[in-house]
Amino acid sequence: MQHNVSLKPFNTFGFTVTAKYLAHVTNIEQLADIVQFANKNNLPYLVIGSGSNVIFTGDFAGIITHLDTNKITINGTQITAEAGVNWHYLVQFSLANQLYGLENLALIPGTVGASPVQNIGAYGAQFADFCSHIKVFDTKNMQTYDLEADKCAFAYRDSIFKQYPNRWIILNVSLNLHKKFIANLSYTPLKQHLAHQPITALKIFNAICEIRNNKLPNPTILGNAGSFFKNPVVTANIKTELQAKYNAIPIYKQADNSYKIAAAWLIEQCGLKGYRLGDAAVYQHQPLVLVNYGAATAQEILDLANIIQNKVRAKFGISLDIEPIII
Ligand SMILES: Cc1cc2nc3c(=O)[nH]c(=O)nc-3n(C[C@H](O)[C@H](O)[C@H](O)COP(=O)(O)OP(=O)(O)OC[C@H]3O[C@@H](n4cnc5c(N)ncnc54)[C@H](O)[C@@H]3O)c2cc1C
After folding, report:
1. What's the count of helices (H) and strands (E) in the chain, helices before strands?
2. Mutate to test the pocket of ligand 1, among 48, 90, 157 (most ligand atoms within 8 A of CB)
3. SS3 state at 278
4. Among the atoms of ligand 1, which is closest to the Cα of residue 325?
């Protein structure tokens, strides 16, 4: 285990924080040793992937563990990938093996191990659409077992792993993909982007990479954690009230008859696009993303988030929930 380690390479916001210990593990025995060591010494511990969905509010006084596991196997149309595999690499790997479905989830930063935690999603697809089961290490009873997808409480940017942090460490995920390509064009801007041309999985993959590269800041250049807020979900009654007041409001019907509102639009309507608080700012090209222009602290980002939440609540009566995990 390394001692007093900078976490700058382990958080895409680029905050200057340290961990008391950092461990890289490659097997369950090492993982079990760390959990036991932490419990015995009353130290907090946390498994981290690429740090693209975390906000460290200060130095971490315990053990940060990174899973250096990289195996991918294919069994028929099922693909199993270990936690340390880069998510985007898995998407590319699946397409190279003529297994389809993940193309809409191209270029989401981070690791396979974190993908179930907030049920990553984009452009009309989400992790849960493909999940068969997840191999976990249960830190409560130090056992390893498979959790079937229907036991993971997957929801919009949510799962049992997010609800009960540290209970389960994800070792690998098994995904059911398709041999036959069926285009998922449920996200209208994607459909428009690909209009009037034959659609292939590779075209969707390339289009999504292009859209994302144009829209989202590259964390290696401008610190950020992607969407900072979840898109709020409201009832049909609230939707009708909002539409009566704001006819341009982007609002989308969900499978359960609730309605999802584009949080970026709400923030923009509050005049906050590009708003800056020191080095913490609302990204000029996509107001759902908060960025670190260099020396912002987590507290400044959270203060900025608080200003946004208050303004959106005051104008629209809607609460915005923070998406990344605050540590
Ligand atoms: C530019 C940008 C764009 C993004 N776009 C999207 C998007 O379109 N859709 C989307 O859903 N997300 C998006 N995100 C958020 C992020 O990419 C995902 O949440 C991703 O899954 C995080 O992976 P990570 O390895 O960086 O996780 P980390 O940030 O390292 O960890 C996230 C959480 O998962 C836990 N965790 C990590 N590994 C394990 C494990 N093996 N077992 C148990 N718990 C674990 C951590 O403890 C932490 O609580 C974006 C982020 C950025 C920076």
Report:
1. 8, 20
2. 48
3. coil
4. 49
Tokens of 289: 């993303």
The percent of residues above 70 in pLDDT, for the chain, comes to: 100
Tokens 């993971």 -> residue: 152
Q: Which of 125, 150, 118 is nearest to 52 (CA)?
A: 118
**Residue 102 CB less than 6 A away from ligand 1:** no
Helix (H) or strand (E) holding 154, with range, is none
Q: Is the Cβ–Cβ distance between 23 and 43 less than 8 Å?
A: no
Over the stretch 258-270, which tens digit does the pLDDT of each residue have? 999 999 999 999 9
Q: Which tokens sit at 100?
A: 């389809």
Residue 159 φ then ψ, to 5°: -170, 175
Span 127-133, mean pLDDT? 98
**303: exposed, middle or buried (C-beta count within 10 Å: 0-12, 13-18, 19+)?**
middle
- The three-state secondary structure class of 221 is coil
